[in-house]
Amino acid sequence: MQRTILSNATLIDCVHPALAANASVVVENGRITDILTDGHKPVMGDATVVDLKGAYLLPGLWDVHIHPDYLTLADAPLAEQVALFGHRLMSGLTESGIIGFRCAGTHSFMDVAWKRAFDSGQYVGPRVYASGHFLTTTGGHFLTTGHALECDSPYGFVKAIREQIKNGVDHIKLNLSGGIMGPAWDRHWHSFLLEDELKAAFAICRQREFKVMAHATNPDAVKNAIRYGAHSIEHGYIMDDECIDLFFKHDAWYVPTLAISHLTPNQAGNEWERAYLAQRNLPPSLCCRADAAADVHATWFSKALKAGVKMALGSDIRPLKDAALLEMGLWVKDGATPWQTLLAATKNAAAVCGVADDLGTIEVGKLADLIVVAANPLDDINNVRQLLLVLKEGRIVSDKRS
Predict the structure, then answer these.
(1) Of 300, 263, 298, 258, residue with least CA distance to 282
(2) Could you tell me if 162 and 254 lie in one domain?
(3) Looking at residue 226, which CATH number applies to its domain?
(4) What is the Rg, in whole angstroms, of the alpha carbon atoms belonging to the chain?
(5) What does residue 65 show for φ and ψ, rounded to 5 degrees?
(6) Which residues are CB-neighbours of 184 under 8 A, at least 6 positions away?
(7) I need a labelling partner for 236 at 20 to 30 A (CA). Which of 20, 167, 290, 305 fits?
(8) CATH number where 10 lies
(9) Are residues 191 and 72 in the same domain?
(10) What sign has the CA pseudo-torsion 277, 129, 82, 120?
């Protein structure tokens, strides 16, 4: 039996908003078996003891809306792209403490491949929830990279969804509308699917018991997605009060991806955002589109947050090791508290992926996917960047202590 004790921790369990000082967490065979606070000590026995010296112990972080680098086969051979994606995923775990990623569109089922590799133990990596391709219409959203499949007619969508299922995905990603980043025909206030296409796509997902991750960027698309049974709404750049009501009526999740509209030179507010923009080098035309959408996006994010809509954190940007951390900063900038933001990136994110019974909080019985940071993220959400340790099922996979 492998037994580890994490002692002298300041615990943020993502269940209770208060800190628990001088805590110890006992892990046996990958799961948390005991949590002691106020200086109470567990029986040491033959356990490996890791003294955290007062540092902050919390659940590992998640990013529930990701894509690999947008490369075509003309940019790099497929084998290189698959290897790069795996490297990015592993770096997200070891460099930033992101223990779970939910994919929102990859070509060639590279997300399925890495999910299987990590699950088998061939490589140490995060937990991956795969979508395969994202599905849209001819003349739909984000077509140039090959990550999207163009589908037309009800049967076109049904066939494509069956192909995704056959190749081992966890959920189906449907792009119902346009986006901020794209060519002239790809606008976020336009919806793309006809009603019979919507009905067929959602019907086959219900029949096969696959959750729908719905890219929906305007009120029409959001309301259609929720009414037809979407598990989560991605983006929601423009919404209305009826959209908010429908989230509650149908118990749907909202993943706002603030980074898409908020990370531009005109809006950058700290060193990390400026560094991202210098690396990303977005075309001015797309920055203008993002700037024009940002205020409305922020408004509906804030309204959904205040209303109590279920929300989880996803970034939709790269590099993966930075993306969730940037998104967390944007949540706080737009009015979320650090506590709300942490819950979105831990407990709620695990729930979106259907694994809340095992992950997302520090509780007895759960898997010990944990991080340790040097400063309190409830004081400043950017303190999650002061990473000391990452543990997957109680085993240290990254150690940055000096």
Answers:
(1) 263
(2) yes
(3) 3.20.20.140
(4) 21
(5) -150, 95
(6) none
(7) 167
(8) 2.30.40.10
(9) yes
(10) positive
Do 273 and 298 fall into the same domain? yes
Task: State whether 155 and 136 are in the same domain.
Answer: yes
CA dist 23 and 174 (Å) reads 44
Split into its structural domains, the chain has a count of 2
Q: Which residues does 205 contact at the CB level (< 8 Å), separation at least 6?
A: 161, 172, 211, 212, 229
Claim to verify: residue 150 and residue 285 sit in the same structural domain: yes
Question: Which range marks the domain in which residue 348 is found?
Answer: 61-352
- Is residue 217 domain-shared with residue 311, that is, in the same domain? yes
- 191 closest CA partner among 220, 212, 213: 220
Classify residue 195 as left (phi > 0), alpha (psi -120 to 50) or beta. alpha
pLDDT in tens, the chain (402 residues): 689 999 999 999 999 999 999 999 999 999 999 999 988 888 888 999 999 999 999 999 999 999 999 888 889 999 999 999 999 999 999 999 999 999 999 999 999 999 999 999 999 999 999 999 999 999 999 887 789 999 999 999 999 999 999 999 999 999 999 999 888 889 999 999 999 999 999 999 999 999 999 999 999 999 999 999 999 999 999 999 999 999 999 999 999 999 999 999 999 999 999 999 999 999 999 999 999 999 999 999 999 999 999 999 999 999 999 999 999 999 999 999 999 999 999 999 999 999 999 999 999 999 999 999 999 999 999 999 999 999 999 999 999 998
Is residue 136 domain-shared with residue 32, that is, in the same domain?
Answer: no
285 and 313 both lie in a single domain: yes
3 state SS of 22: strand
Task: Determine contact, residues 198/136, Cβ cutoff 8 Å.
Answer: no
